[in-house]
Structure formats: structure tokens, C-alpha cells
Specification:
2 copies of one chain form a homodimer. Chain A is α/β, with parallel strands linked by helices. In chain A, 39% of the residues lie in helices and 14% in strands. The first copy, chain A, has 17 helices and 17 strands.
Chain lengths: 477, 477
């Protein structure tokens, strides 16, 4: 019998069976107990170690469960063959895995001195009704809605889809039934589903510059991205005609970053292009349509579509809060069928509790009230920024200012470059963004010379906008 | 001048500018105002309609914004060319889109008469501390943590990842740092990310039968799925060697549906297979490892991996509640680097609020207490089921009963078929599941003859288990 001199510790820190189990396991792993070797019977070992037989039974049971030993009837317990594996150096692998020191993606200019950041992603949440959100959450949890802890429909709960379809109809002129809506945790996730519906090797046409996040996502797909030029009305349809693509990604309400609102004529041309083939679609990303400062909101492209060609994507992350990971996609009938075939087994990514909170927030009118307030707030910022831009107008052209949370400045002075303007602004403590950031072609040289800058104002207070613009005046005028 | 006889309604239901705007828009869309046609000046139209000039300005402004008309300096307003589009019949498209009447996927047997459903997906949430969850939620919202409404890290908030890594270390023997963890809204979403990391055209090996949901998801990828046979120890490594695959998907703790726990020997063989090539990985789906009824929990496969070969996936949907859409994936260093390159731009799918709630739920010990209680509860059900199964043992073999929330019955009587056994159970009001449901090869004929049934007990009360088993006795014995 193999020497089972196990030093048992009886201070209670570890129970006896565990110590026996661990000892034998280490003996096997260390090659000191060899495959095929017979272990003592439970009775013999129990006697030897002066422990109860149950204790040894337990230890052997665990070794059996994990496959270190096997029991052969009427013969006893034997050590199993365990493949030896050169122990890799996990520590080294882990060390390699550390993050590159403080990933500062956008640290071209030292952030230390930046006091005014005109980021196009800035949002103002000062008016968000935290109290209302809390109250709704509390009520929902209070109501003992235990069914909310169960898994909901893959597409999203029907109530929420109904509320969204009503909202989209009245606010955006979208024509849809709740059956056409798919709710998901963010636009990126919805695009992942869309990849499955459009199939592999599909091509997607994008404008240039465009929303780079979407570009990166399409590139990570089994897709080819085709770049289509744009003019002051948006995507060039003649160029689009020449591309082998299944879908064109557009932002008709307020193109990012140029701020172009696509006129009805161009919209109809796009719809006509899509209608020419069954497998052609328009992806309408309506990312910031809630904020428009001139006239009524421009209806969605989807609303003009009579042929089931538009995939409409919107999000509450911008209009409510980025943490609200709820986006929605309105699918045309053909893709809806495909969703059911090839995507409906993907479980919902939004918890039912969050869906219910959001549903009540919209249904009970809080969303509309909040939107009205933030719209007013952003309009105020927008107006102040335009006011402050007056002295710049000789040297800069302003565009894309009718909607959204950013506008575009183009320097009329050909001596300037984008880089140069950004650098001078940074020296004065102001961060502005070059439009070339949104370019999706490698060679941005020609574009850099176009001297286009993006100024986002959503995240700055009105005073900060004034002060920031005063600094920019020093820098540029 | 085109006749602008607009009948203005002054009852206040719709403001005047909107009526003018809509009238002209419809005239253009209806082809009664043609492209290139000149509109009256704002002054002329205002006089003609007896409204203020601002009203007409507003209406024209909206038409301009939407691109129905254009302004040519010193000349006036002209109708734009709008592409005509044959109006498709959206109503018909929408009608086609209705759901097929009440999608009853699993209605082979009329559900009306089913009183006892031994679904392997059933869970018991009766012990869930709703009060604690509510309290944590309330506190978090009370603390005015407004930063929680901002977008968090793509990988998941660091605090939560740290808590998960600690939990995985102590409960599952997983060796990882928080940097290796990616949090996402459900396993399906994590697999979508994994698709990007493993690259296109990768092959995945799966056992047969297996977890069909994962199979469907891999199939929806640009992947080929290779079926590898399994024996009583799990996936057959000799067969695996012959397949051109990048990854093997396994459930070593408790294979679904067979309930096999993979012994250490087979685990080492798999790890050795993976270590032979840089681009080989094991996907360990540890879906129900929290529930084990015999001995200590079996440590994870990841914990035995010294070479960075295991992708460990787990979820809180099973251990807490299906509505908690939080899963996690532990990536080996190589894939972690790839995640940063090609996936880190996918925004997090879990709201920061939910992440924080979960973090406190685990960190403050509620999770462990809840797990201990449910484990006890499930063990009770498990023991009762085994007790009730005693009279069946002559005719049926029981397996996979050491862990999880289901076990497997195999009929010893060759005259039986799976279908036949399920049918007879249904006649007595009991729903049991055939293992062939989990088969991923088309031809399940041979398997049907194997007469294997799945009995899940998580969702049934102890009394229901007893009553259901009594019915089954009538049906089968």
C-alpha cells in the first residue's frame, strides 16, 4: 500500500475529508501516485489515519467526481490516467495582459490645460428627473412584480414596443406596428443582429465622413464597406448606384458630422434606389432627431417609405441617458420575417425591469416633458453659441446648426489647416474636434486642408460656452 | 402665380403655418406643383391669405428644411425635383408581417392537460430576496449617483469585474484578473463578441447532444460547426483531433443535457489538444455549476489551464434571475488583446445602474446567502425526485444526477421509444422532455431509439414533484 502518511490538521480550519482529498489529488497531479495504482480501501485508510470511514468516503467521492480515481467493482479504487501537460507560464501571460499604461486615445494635446471641451458627445443631464425615475423604479419593485424577474420576449416586451411605436409615430412620423420593433441593449447590439439578417458578405455604403463607431462595427462584420461621396444634400445616389451593396447607412435628420439634413428629393432618390432590388435597404440612424431648433421636426425617412425598405434605428441613450442601454430598431416586413428565422433565439439583452421602468417613463408623459425641457436647454446653448460665433463669421462659415448638439465651422482662410486650428485652440485651453476624425478613408490629407471643425455644445454650461468662445477668439481671430 | 387657395382653418386645432406648409407639401407630392415652379413671395402669399408674413416665412422655412422647395437669392422660392416613387402597398406588407397565430413551438402535446412540467429550464425564485434587491436599488438611486447615468466602460465597470473575479476564484477556482473579464447582457451577446475575436470561418466543435441554443448561435455565425462524439467522460478527444476547428464548446461541470461531469483526465486531454496550436481554444460554458449535490463543487476547467486556452463563460441569469441580463466571460490573454483590437468599441450592453446593484448584491454577501438557500432548496427537490424514482429503477437508469437542475432517465426496455414515453406521460398530464431535442444532427432516428428522457425539477414545488412522479408511475410502470 502506498504510504498515505497524511498530516492531518485538526485545528478545524479545513475539514478532514478535504485535507485527505487534497493530499491524494496533489500526489496524483505530482506523479507520485501513478495511473493504475490501487488506493487503500476506505476502511483501511480510515483506520490508518484514525478518522471515521465517512470522512474517507467523502474524500474518495470527491476524487471520483473529479475523475482523479475510478472505482472498479469488487476490486477497489484506482488512480486514473491523467494527461500530463507542460505547465504554461500563466503569470507571464497575465502580465502581458495588463492594459497599456492609461490608454489615452485622444491625448494629442495635453488634457491638463483643457478647460472647455466642445465634445460632440457631451450631454447635459442636469434636468433629468432622477426623482421620477427613482419613484417609478420603486413602485415597480414594490408592486411585487415577480414575473419581471423572468426572461421576457426576445424582441422586447410588447408593452414597451407598443409605447415606442406610438412615440415614433407621433414624434418621428415612423409607420410601424409593435410587431416590427426589436428592442436591444444599444445600437451596437442591434447592428450585430442586423448583420445576421442581411447575411454574410453583404456590402454597406457609407458616407465619408460618417459616424465612425458604426463604420468600425460594420468593418468588424463579414461585410465590405463602400464609401460613397456626399454633397450638401447627403449621399450621392449616382455613386451609390455603381456600388455592389445591400444597404446604405444614412442619418437623414442630421448627418454626423456634417450636420446636413437630407432634403425630400434626395430621400426619394434613395428610396427609389432601394426599391429597385428586393435585397436593398436603407439603414436610417436617427441618433439625435429629438433636437431640432428650426421649424417642426423633419419626419423620418422611414415615414416616406412605402415599400418596406427602411431599417429605422433609434436610441434612448442620447435622449434620456447614456446609461439607459435601450435602443430600438424598426424592421421592414421582409427583414422581420428573417429576424424570426435567424435571430429570434437571441435572448433579450434588456432586463424586463428596465423595460418596464422605461415604458412607464414614456407612457406617463415624463419622457415628453423631459424632452421639451432639454430641447429648450439645448436651444439656449445653441443660440448662445451662434451669438458668440458672430465675430467669427468673416473668417468661418457655420453649418449644420439647425439640429442636434453640434455644428460645423469651416475656415475661409486657406492658410489654415484643421490641425493648426485645433492646436491653436488647445493652447488657449479649448478643445475642438477636427472633422477628419470622422473620415473613414486612410488618406485624410485632402480633407485636412478643408479646415472643418466640429463644435459640440451639449455638455457645456452656457457660461462655459461664452468663456470658451472668448478663448477661441484669442486663438483664431 | 399658382393658385394658392388654401382653406385655412382658424379653430386653433392646427396652427396656420402648419396648414400652409402641409397644403404646399401635398401639392408638391401630388404633382400639382411641379419641379422648377416658382412659389409666390412670402409677402404676396401673406397678403393673399390674410395672414402675417411671419406665418408664411415659417411655412416656407419648414419646406426648405425638408427640401421640398429651394430659395434662389434675388429670384425667389422654387419647387425642388422630387423623385417619384411607385407607392408600394405597405398595408399588405404589414399584414404579411403579423405573427403566425400563437407561435406554439412546443405544442406537440396539448398543453391544456399538462399539470406537471418537468422543464429543464424551470427555476425557483421563491427565495429570491426581492426586498434586498429593492433596498439596494433604492439606495443606489438615492445616493444621487448621477455618474451612473453616464456610459460606463465597454468591458463592464471595474468594480463589478473585480467582484466577479473574486467570486469566480473562490467558488469556481477560476484564475483571472478583473482585466480579463468582459461583462455583457447575456451569454448570446458574449458569443457574438467571441465570433469577432475568433475571426470568420472559424470552426467550432460541439458534442451531440448539446445545448441547442449555443448551437443555433454558432450556426448563425460565419462558422462551421463540427460534431464530435461523446462518451461517458464527455467529448471524444481523438475525434476532435481530426476536426479542423479553432474552438471546442464544452460544459465540463455538468454537460447539457447528459449531465456528464468531465473527469480530470479528459479535461487534461482537452487542454493538451488546445495547447498544440496557438489558435485553439476551449469554450467552457459553466451554466449551472452553482448547484452541486455531492461533495465539493468541481473546479472549473479554466482553473486547470496553465496556457491561456480556456474562454470561461458564466451567467447570473440562472443563479439570480433570468431577468438579470448579466453574463461574464473570462478571456485568455491572447483573446483579451484581440478583444481590445476588434471589440472594445462595442458599447457595454448592461446599464451601470444594474451593474452597481449586482455588484453590491454580491459584494455584501447576499448572493452567497441566496445561493446557499437555493442550493438547499434544489437539493431537497433533487432528493425527493431521486426518492420518487426508486420504483422506476428497474425499468430506467438514472444519470447526471449529481449537479444542476435536471437528470436523465434511460429506459432499459428496448420496446420503448422516446416519443412513446413522452406521449404516455402527456396522457397522464406530465410533460417530460426527450433528449433528442438537444440533438444537433438532422437524423435523430437512432437516438430516439435510445429512449433517454430529461427531467428538470427546478421549477416544480416538492409536492408537484411527488404528484407528477405518481402520474408518471401510472404512465410508465
Amino acid at each position: 500500500m502506498y504510504d498515505m502518511a497524511i498530516e492531518l490538521n485538526t485545528d478545524g480550519a479545513k475539514c478532514l475529508y478535504e485535507q485527505i482529498y487534497e493530499h491524494i489529488r496533489e500526489e496524483i497531479k505530482g506523479g507520485r501516485l501513478l495511473s493504475g495504482e490501487r488506493l487503500p480501501s476506505t476502511r483501511a485508510l480510515a483506520e490508518y489515519l484514525q478518522v471515521s470511514r465517512t470522512t474517507v468516503d467523502f474524500a474518495y467521492g470527491q476524487l471520483l467526481s473529479e475523475g482523479y480515481i475510478e472505482a472498479i467493482p469488487y476490486k477497489g479504487y484506482f488512480v486514473c490516467r491523467v494527461e500530463e501537460l507542460p505547465e504554461g507560464n500563466m503569470a507571464v501571460l497575465m502580465a502581458e495582459n495588463r492594459l497599456p499604461e492609461a490608454e489615452e486615445e485622444e491625448s494629442n494635446f495635453c488634457n491638463r490645460n483643457i478647460c472647455y471641451d466642445f465634445s460632440p458627445n457631451g450631454l447635459d443631464m442636469s434636468l433629468f428627473p432622477f426623482g421620477v425615475w427613482k419613484k417609478i423604479t420603486k413602485n415597480i419593485l414594490n408592486d411585487g412584480n415577480k414575473e419581471l424577474f423572468a426572461l421576457g420576449e426576445a424582441q422586447g416586451d410588447y408593452d414597451l414596443r407598443q409605447t415606442i411605436s406610438r412615440y415614433l409615430h407621433s414624434a418621428r412620423g415612423v409607420k410601424c406596428t409593435p410587431e416590427q420593433i426589436v428592442v436591444g441593449a444599444g445600437n451596437d447590439y442591434l447592428l450585430l443582429l442586423l448583420e445576421k439578417m442581411l447575411g454574410r458578405h453583404a456590402g454597406v455604403a457609407m458616407e465619408n465622413p460618417t459616424y465612425k463607431r458604426a463604420y468600425r462595427i460594420f468593418r468588424s462584420f463579414a461585410y465590405h464597406v463602400e464609401i460613397v461621396g456626399m454633397d450638401e444634400n447627403g449621399m450621392n445616389v449616382d455613386e451609390l448606384q455603381k456600388k455592389q451593396v445591400k444597404a446604405a447607412y444614412v442619418m437623414p435628420s442630421h448627418q454626423y458630422p456634417t450636420g446636413v439634413t437630407m432634403p425630400i428629393g434626395r430621400r426619394m432618390e434613395l428610396l427609389k434606389w432601394a426599391a429597385e432590388e428586393e435585397e436593398r435597404f436603407l439603414i436610417e440612424d436617427d441618433y439625435d432627431s429629438e433636437f431640432r431648433y428650426k421649424g417642426k421636426p423633419i419626419p423620418s425617412l422611414q415615414g416616406s417609405d412605402g415599400n418596406g425598405k427602411v431599417i429605422y434605428i433609434g436610441t434612448f441613450s442620447k435622449a434620456i441617458a447614456p446609461a439607459i442601454r435601450v435602443s430600438y430598431m424598426v424592421l421592414p416586413p421582409l427583414l422581420m420575417r428573417r429576424y424570426r428565422e435567424c435571430c429570434s433565439f437571441y435572448a433579450s439583452t434588456v432586463s424586463r425591469i428596465d423595460q418596464r421602468i422605461l415604458n412607464e417613463f414614456i407612457r406617463d408623459g415624463y419622457f415628453e416633458r423631459y424632452l421639451n425641457k432639454t430641447r429648450k436647454l439645448y436651444r439656449e446653448k445653441h443660440d448662445i453659441l451662434l451669438q458668440e460665433l458672430k465675430p467669427f463669421r468673416k473668417k468661418f462659415q457655420v453649418s449644420g446648426e439647425n439640429a442636434g448638439l453640434h455644428l460645423v465651422l469651416t475656415s475661409r482662410d486657406k492658410k489654415h489647416t484643421e490641425e493648426n486650428l485645433i492646436g491653436r485652440a488647445a493652447e488657449c485651453g479649448v478643445k475642438v474636434y477636427g472633422m477628419s476624425d470622422a473620415l473613414i478613408e486612410e488618406d485624410a490629407q485632402g480633407f485636412l486642408a478643408e479646415r472643418k471643425l466640429i463644435l459640440g455644445y451639449g455638455g457645456l454650461k452656457t457660461e462655459e460656452i461664452k468663456d470658451g468662445m472668448a478663448k477661441l477668439k484669442q486663438a483664431w481671430l
